[in-house]
Design a protein that fits this description.
It holds the Pfam family Peptidase_M16. One of its GO terms (biological process) is proteolysis. InterPro entries: Metalloenz_LuxS/M16, Pept_M16_N, Peptidase_M16, Peptidase_M16_C. Helices cover about 45% and strands about 20% of the residues. The protein is α+β, with helices and mostly antiparallel strands. It has two domains: about 210 residues, 2-Layer Sandwich (Cytochrome Bc1 Complex, Chain A, domain 1), CATH 3.30.830.10; about 190 residues, Metalloenzyme, LuxS/M16 peptidase-like (Cytochrome Bc1 Complex, Chain A, domain 1, 2-Layer Sandwich). The protein has a six-stranded mixed sheet, sandwiched between helices. Helix 1 runs parallel beside helix 13 and helix 4 runs parallel beside helix 9. The N terminus is likely disordered.
């Protein structure tokens, strides 16, 4: 009884924190189509200025993959008013830091500065959009940088091609079928004019959202946004094709040999709906039940009790158009990939046939309450969430209300969604194994 009261108290406390942590924001559009979101937080003298562009690897020409990620690097080269090589020097000299990242769906740039450098940050991001210098020396320099990144993070990284291989075998029509980092041969073959055309098409105000968050004065910030961003011309509308994948109706099989590993891994991957759907959120919860932490179902049974796997996991890889639900495991010596899959499938079948217990359900809800609080615990996290909810979900206020969706998910939905998507005839089995020549050594 005491434990139940403590659990209830913890849940109420988390709920109180979540309610108290409502994120206030103001949003509006400039005449050139740029969407602007402002969030004031005076708790620390820090601001973040970020811009998310609705361009990712799915927007690339199949013969020129890697462009979106390439631009993540290229647009730090310099502008008409920021000399080549000076971008990072300006940021660090003013007590800031910056970075960027690319996904299949979008590209995100940001600077974090002491709040007295807000105008500088706004100016720098407007320069990236209004006056980028895209020339051959920049392209050649960043081509080598991207190749080195691929060597370090993909080619020479154990299991570095896992996601790419799953995607390649799971998608036939959709551009998700190629890796975000793209093909180095495609980048080598591209002309300067092709890079310039990509910039002209996607790096336009009406394909972006500007988020400024932190210790700011709203009125002054609006003046600077208008001063630096409003003069940028609106671009042509970005028209995207819709790519449809036919349902998977029988088990797919594939093998990939990785020279960087000594232990094989088996992956079972299921194609799932857009991250904007309710089912995608239910799948998030299913992955938590199955493999989040040492007390999760798969870990406790397969790793801890039966000692059949060195590692086991399940996660929902959600994206704008489709998602992938992946179960993976590394067998211990004496066990096979088939042994691991059999055990994992048994846990999935249990979810499909039996409602999870009320106790497990309460634990699950506590985890998502905590995740909600943590996701908005920093000004950087809030800025990223605001941009993402606007750009990929079409609803900025999900930063406050998405937790209500998770709260409303029922035990019956967990069972039904597992039945709907996680079946053997709807998946890819990928055997991710050591390269044969290495395995023989």
């Amino acid at each position: 009884m005491r434990k139940s009261l403590m659990a209830l108290g913890s849940l109420l406390m988390l709920g109180g924190v979540a309610s108290a942590q409502q994120v206030a924001f103001e949003e509006y559009d400039l005449d050139n189509g740029m969407h602007v979101i402002l969030h004031q937080d005076k708790t620390a003298p820090v601001i973040i200025t970020s811009v998310m562009y609705h361009v990712g690897s799915k927007d690339e020409n199949p013969e020129r993959t890697g462009f979106a990620h390439f631009f993540e690097h290229l647009l730090f080269e310099g502008t008409q008013n920021i000399d080549r090589g000076e971008w990072f020097k300006i940021v660090t000299a003013n007590g800031g830091n910056n970075n960027a990242n690319t996904s299949d769906d979008r590209t995100y740039y940001y600077e974090v500065f002491p709040s007295n450098n807000l105008e500088l940050a706004i100016w720098m991001e407007s320069e990236r959009l209004m006056h980028p210098v895209i020339n051959q020396i920049g392209v050649d320099t960043q081509n080598e940088v991207v190749k080195e990144e691929k060597r370090l993070r993909v080619d020479n990284q154990p299991y570095g091609n896992l996601i790419a291989e799953v995607k390649r075998n799971m998608f036939v029509n959709h551009p998700y079928r190629w890796a975000t980092i793209g093909s180095m041969d495609h980048l080598d073959a591209a002309t300067l004019e092709e890079f310039q055309a990509f910039n002209k098409k996607f790096y336009v105000p009406n394909n972006s959202v500007l988020v400024i968050a932190g210790d700011l004065d709203i009125d002054q910030t609006k003046k600077w946004v208008n001063q630096y961003f409003a003069p940028i011309p609106k671009g042509a509308p970005v028209n995207r094709k819709t790519f449809k994948e036919e349902p998977i109706t029988e088990t797919l099989h594939a093998t990939y040999e990785d020279p960087n590993i000594q232990l094989p891994m088996v992956i079972a991957s299921y194609r799932t709906p857009s991250m904007k759907t309710r089912d995608a959120r239910v799948l998030d919860m299913i992955s938590t039940i199955l493999s989040d932490g040492k007390s999760s179902r798969m870990y406790k049974k397969i790793v801890d009790e039966k000692k059949m796997a060195l590692q086991i996991g399940a996660f929902n890889y959600s994206q704008e158009d489709y998602g992938l639900y992946m179960v993976y495991g590394i067998p211990m010596q004496g066990f096979t990939a088939e042994d691991i899959l059999k055990e994992a499938d048994e846990e999935i079948v249990k979810l499909q046939k039996e409602l999870i217990s009320e106790k497990e359900f309460e634990k699950l809800k506590n985890i998502y309450e905590s995740n909600y609080v943590n996701s908005n615990a920093s000004v950087e996290g809030i800025a990223s969430n605001l941009a993402t909810y606007y750009m990929l979900y079409g609803d900025v206020n999900l930063i406050n209300t998405e937790i209500d969706i998770y709260r409303s998910i029922t035990r019956e939905e967990i069972r039904d969604v597992a039945k709907k998507y996680l079946n053997p005839n709807q998946r890819l089995i990928l055997d991710y194994v050591p390269a044969k020549d290495k395995a023989q050594n």
